[in-house]
Amino acid sequence: MTIAEIKKNTEAKMEQSIGALKNNLSRIRTGRANPQLLDAIHVEYYGSMVPLSQVANVSLLDARTISVQPWEKNMSAKIEKAIRESELGLNPASMGELIRVPMPPMSEERRKEMTKLARSEGEAAKVAVRNLRRDANEGVKKLVKDKLASEDDQKRSEADIQKITDRFIAEIDALVAAKEQDIMAI
Fold this sequence. Notes:
Elements: H1 3-26, E1 42-45, E2 48-51, E3 56-62, E4 65-70, H2 76-85, E5 93-95, E6 98-102, H3 108-145, H4 151-184
Antiparallel strand pairs: 1-2, 3-4, 4-6, 5-6
Helix pairs in contact: 1-3, 1-4, 3-4
Pfam families: RRF
Subcellular location: Cytoplasm
Keywords: Cytoplasm, Protein biosynthesis
């Protein structure tokens, strides 16, 4: 493996860490309704647990209400129960075949809890990025040890890897700050 390949692989893995962070942040509740909030909910369907999105259409009715439209009529009660029993603190209401999930306004205390959760997700992403930096630097050191690269190449590549790391850490900080602002907006 060459230094260029190490950098390329490291950057690709850091992109994946950013993608995972975005996915995790999208599940954190804000004051507004977000259909992705229900992605983590699983429903019993013919004896096995499946994601809600595989048994119903999940969309927004308005800024504070998610609508869940089961594809089979007999699934309504199971879906409603799964949403109610989730840790999201939501109280769905059936209206015929449509299940409405209103987003209750969040208290100041709950908003602060959510910002702490967003920060911890950001911190976990930073740790992942830093671990990737360490692995890349160790890979370059191994190339130098095996005499496949010079020490000058090592110094240059470590500086480049640090620049890549700094860019991704700044992106993580920006994502977390945007999520915190979203959570604290009333």
